[in-house]
Design brief:
single chain, 8-stranded antiparallel beta sheet, alpha+beta, flat, 3-stranded antiparallel beta sheet
């Protein structure tokens, strides 16, 4: 295939390879991967059969990469007599199309026939994806399905069922059989019986007399001893400290303040408030009482020590000396050493009797069950190969045209694999909708796409939820905001309620960017007016409150508080005057310059608008040229290898704006329409004002009789006369200076 002739098409600003035949797919290993639009894609979240992508994903990392796609093409083509079957994208595979000249192909062919027979379709000549799915599900529900997992339902022997249940009870995260039940595996059986053998060996080691001073009662006795051992050691240590120095006696018995703090609470016999106090009152060389004068929190534990340990080993007594305690410790030392060396803790819950029972031949029985299941593995693998071949012959061409190139996306013959449906919102239908798992993380990367994005939470009638990112590529953004609701239709036509939760702002079009400064200015004016109105309302409310208070004071006979008269700030008045004068002068100069354009005034209007909107349009133009699909997909786990542009014309096709169908009848009468404004009157008034201003500044004097010219009517106050005086003054001064100069 080294001499394969490639065909490319231009889309998204990138030359993309055109894949239409099986020969094109078989030559993919020869195509420079720098020319691939994508090098990896996720298995989940795409509008492709997830099972197909799982079968291609041989390393099971949740992503399909270029190497795995090439391997899948080679494998499928190697099992077909004519690889062009792949290009047909058929959901059925004729058995005659399978190449039986090699061992693997023969196994696949025979297994396909067996699957049809299991479905009572022995006469069928083709196998469909739906057929193999049903057959495999039926096979997986059998006892021996080749997955190496044996649930308890695989055997009729009650002893074996109980043994399997014991293994599962002692296994962390047991494996699951293909039929859905938990079961044992060769590894879990090995680990279990290794633990069991260690546990039984440990039990056997503890059967000597030294380790069992009380016989079968030793275990319970040691548990009672171990529960109070640290507390008894603490008591005798405190007594020895008190014997060393009498001054420590108060300290080792705890301070009185601690008892007062505990007594201030509602106490119980086993109150935790006193559990940390000494077992009994500490004295120099005191003995530990076993029946009376004990810490209330430890009475039950000390009673168990006396009955299960002290009485059997030392005889019945009511107190314990330090030497007695050391004797008890010595007699239980061997058992303590054995207990600390405990092995097989995972099977301890089964008990000594059950573990010894399982140790007698059950490992061999369970291993035999696992081997019997694994004997069916070749049959199971053959079924999976049939399934894989059917999925690949149906979907490989589709996968390649949504991976190596984005032909399905740019050709607009159908939605691409990453387009999950259509979002209807604000009289628009957004077709570029991508599933996301975390809107916050996705937006961080997706913002680089330079697209206007709506992140929405979706919920359907079944209570299922989903998140998506929708690219808004047409229309305006005036009515788009967080919290707006829409309706989303997935690829199957199911409806989902959509709520906007996040917006990534970017330009949508040059037209929208042109009007953006004016809309921002209007919003600013509205905000300022609203803020001033709120301030005025607050001031009015304060005035009303003050007046009400004064009325109450007058009615109660209280003297009225003197009011400080407001002083007029001359500086503020002067500043306002200067500001008004400056604004008036600037407006006059602007209007004078504007009317000075004469017949070029329309161009002046256009120039002024471009001066305002130009920067916004330039920024929008640059961003729209950078708008591309890559970051949107990369944020979802893709590895997009090219800058797949979404220009303005293509973007408009991805977001359709509401239009009335051609040929529709329209009734233009709106009973609730607003009253028409007298635009002609407004234009007439505006024209009169313009003419008046032009006459005032002298621009119309050359067209008027002398009697009605502004210079005649207004005299010296006319702006035209003022300009003439200002222009003649320097000339007059120059002439005067020339006359005063001496004649040489």
């Amino acid at each position: 295939m080294a001499d394969h002739t490639w065909r490319f098409f231009r889309a998204g600003g990138v030359d993309q390879v055109q894949l239409t035949t099986a020969k094109d797919l078989l030559a993919l290993d020869q195509l420079d991967q720098k020319l691939w639009v994508a090098l990896a894609c996720p298995v989940k979240g795409l509008e492709l059969d997830e099972r197909t992508l799982q079968l291609i994903d041989t390393d099971n990392d949740g992503r399909v990469n270029a190497k795995e796609l090439i391997a899948a093409v080679k494998w499928a083509a190697g099992l077909l007599k004519d690889p062009e079957v792949i290009a047909k994208r058929s959901p059925e595979l004729p058995l005659a199309a399978i190449d039986t000249s090699n061992d693997e192909g023969k196994v696949v062919h025979d297994t396909a026939k067996a699957l049809l027979a299991s479905l009572d379709k022995s006469d069928a000549t083709a196998l469909a994806v739906a057929d193999v799915k049903d057959a495999i599900e039926k096979f997986n529900k059998q006892r021996w399905n080749g997955d190496g997992v044996v649930p308890a339902s695989s055997t009729d022997d009650e002893a074996e069922k109980k043994a399997i249940a014991d293994v599962l009870a002692c296994t962390e995260a047991p494996a699951t059989d293909k039929n859905g039940d938990p079961g044992i595996t060769a590894d879990s059986v090995k680990v279990f019986f290794e633990e069991l053998d260690a546990y039984v060996g440990w039990l056997d080691a503890g059967q000597n007399e030294a380790a069992r001073p009380l016989g079968d009662a030793t275990t319970d006795a040691y548990a009672a001893y171990e529960k109070v051992r640290a507390k008894v050691d603490d008591f005798f240590t405190r007594c020895r400290v008190a014997a060393f120095d009498a001054r420590a006696l108060v300290a080792v018995n705890r301070e009185e303040s601690e008892y007062l703090a505990a007594a201030a609470k509602d106490l119980q016999i086993t109150a935790d408030e006193v559990a940390h106090f000494p077992l009994a009152h500490v004295e120099s060389d005191a003995k530990l009482p076993l029946a009376q004068r004990l810490n209330p929190a430890w009475i039950d534990a000390m009673t168990a020590l006396r009955e299960k340990v002290v009485a059997p080993l030392l005889g019945d007594r009511t107190e314990l000396s330090y030497d007695d305690w050391m004797t008890l410790r010595g007699k239980l030392a061997a058992h303590a050493t054995w207990a600390k060396d405990k092995k097989g803790a995972k099977v301890d819950k089964l008990g000594a009797e059950r573990t010894r029972e399982l140790a007698k031949g059950f490992r061999e029985k369970l291993d035999a069950l696992v081997k019997k299941d694994e004997a069916a593995r070749p049959m199971a693998e053959a079924r999976e190969k049939v399934e894989k071949l059917l999925h690949l012959t149906r979907d490989l061409m589709t996968v390649a045209n949504n991976f190596v190139s984005f032909r399905d996306f740019y050709a607009k013959k159908g939605p691409a694999s990453f387009q999950i449906g259509t979002l209807y919102i604000d009289q628009r239908a957004c077709e570029l909708c991508i599933r996301v798992n975390d809107a916050g993380k996705h937006a961080t990367m997706a913002a680089h796409s330079k697209s206007y994005l709506l992140y929405c939470d979706l919920k359907n009638a079944k209570g299922e939820t989903m998140q998506l990112a929708a690219a808004m590529t047409n229309g305006d953004v005036d009515n788009l905001m967080v919290g707006r609701n829409g309706l989303f239709y997935d690829r199957k036509g199911n409806a989902w309620d959509a709520t906007v939760t996040r917006i990534v702002d970017n330009p949508i079009s040059i037209r929208q960017a042109f009007w953006s400064p004016y809309k921002k200015f209007l919003r600013l004016v509205e905000e300022q007016i609203e803020r001033r109105a709120q301030a005025a309302q607050a001031e009015a409310d304060a005035s009303v409150t003050a007046a009400a208070e004064q009325t109450d004071q007058a009615a109660s006979g209280q003297p009225r508080a003197p009011q400080t008269p407001r002083k007029l700030d001359i500086g503020v008045v002067a500043a306002i005057g200067v500001a008004v004068g400056g604004i008036t002068a600037a407006l006059g100069a602007l209007l004078e310059a504007f009317f000075g354009l004469g017949f070029w005034m329309p161009l002046g209007v256009i120039g002024l608008m471009m001066l305002i909107s130009g920067p916004s349009m330039a920024i929008a133009f640059l961003k729209l040229r950078q708008r591309n699909l890559g970051p949107l997909l990369d944020a979802n786990g893709w590895a997009v290898n090219a800058k797949a542009k979404v220009n303005v014309p293509f973007g408009e096709s991805l977001t359709k704006v509401a239009t009335i169908p051609k040929g529709s009848q329209r009734d233009l009468h709106d009973p609730f329409a607003e009253k028409k404004r007298p635009w002609k009157f407004y234009l007439f008034v505006l024209l009169l004002l313009g003419l008046a201003l032009g006459w005032y500044i002298g621009k119309l004097d050359s067209y008027l009789p002398e009697k009605v010219r502004s210079t005649t009517v207004l005299g010296e106050a006319a702006p035209a006369n003022v300009r003439v005086v200002e222009e003649e003054a320097p000339a007059a001064e120059g002439a005067a200076e020339g006359e005063a100069a001496p004649t040489p």
